[in-house]
Specification:
The chain is α+β, with helices and mostly antiparallel strands and about 230 residues long. The chain has helices at about 1-10, 60-65, 85-90, 125-130, 165-170, 170-175, 210-225; strands at about 10-15, 30-35, 40-45, 50-55, 70, 105-110, 115-120, 140-150, 150, 155-165, 180-185, 190-200. It folds into two domains: about 1-150, Uridine Diphospho-n-acetylenolpyruvylglucosamine Reductase, domain 3 (2-Layer Sandwich), CATH 3.30.465; about 155-225, no CATH class. The radius of gyration is 20 Å and the shape is globular. It holds the Pfam family ALO.
Length: about 230
């Protein structure tokens, strides 16, 4: 693909899972979809690191990590995103102690426009490594990524209503009260939903309700939006 693009003087863009509404991957040149480069290449349980092909979805990676007693320390709101896409778009989760998802990358391989494959890490091509962790699809094609994991863990979620003014006035306090703090603001109102998530040793349980969460909250809502 790169050779053909050079012959025709066209650009090459890479698209990930297609979840982002941004048009950054759109091009009148060549588009590469990495969906079939989706294998787990190596799991190092001693270092707690996993090396994956760049097109793997986090939805497929997470269950495999679970089998090895590992997990990613931080995740975004959705998992139908590729490993390369989720770091390249600067995806974040939450919690003052955690960096964006790109900070979990300890090494990667990059295919540049001239077909050179660069091994990048803190000790190899360090300057390129720092740039390419949030690459925006502009620096080449990410082929593989090595992610730093943590031991598998469970979180207990607590949510409660508040107001936007209260949350903003006490933001430092909220950040210190919970490892994974976030809040959801309902625009054109003062209403806020505050969400705390913290490590727990309690067995997994859920108060979700299929009827309200999916039948009503998803399917009926989607149908009404379609109407």
């Amino acid at each position: 693909v790169l050779a053909l693009a050079r012959q025709q003087n066209k650009r090459v863009k890479v698209v990930g899972g297609g979840h982002s509404p941004s048009d950054i991957a759109c091009t009148d040149g060549f588009m590469i979809h990495m969906g079939k480069m989706n294998r787990i290449l190596q799991v190092d349980t001693e270092k707690k690191q996993v090396t994956v092909e760049a097109g793997i979805l986090l939805a497929d990676l997470n269950p495999q990590l679970d089998k090895h007693g590992l997990a990613l320390s931080n995740l975004g709101a959705v998992s139908d995103v590729t490993a390369a896409g989720v770091i390249g778009s600067g995806t974040h989760n939450t919690g003052i102690k955690h960096g964006i998802l790109a900070t979990q990358v300890v090494a990667l391989t990059l295919l540049t426009a001239d077909s050179t494959i660069l091994e990048c890490s803190e000790s190899h091509n360090a300057r390129v490594f720092q740039a390419v962790r949030v690459h925006l699809g502009c620096l080449g094609v990410i082929l593989t990524i090595t992610l730093q994991c943590v031991p598998q863990f469970h979180l207990q979620e607590t949510s409660f209503p508040s107001t936007l003014r209260e949350v903003l006035d006490n933001l430092d306090s909220h950040l210190k009260k919970s490892e994974y703090f976030r809040f959801l603001w309902f625009p054109h109102s003062e209403n806020v939903s505050v969400i705390y998530q913290d490590h727990t040793n309690k067995p997994p349980s859920s108060s979700s309700n299929w009827f309200w969460d999916y039948a009503i909250g998803f399917y009926l809502l989607e149908f009404l939006l379609w109407i």
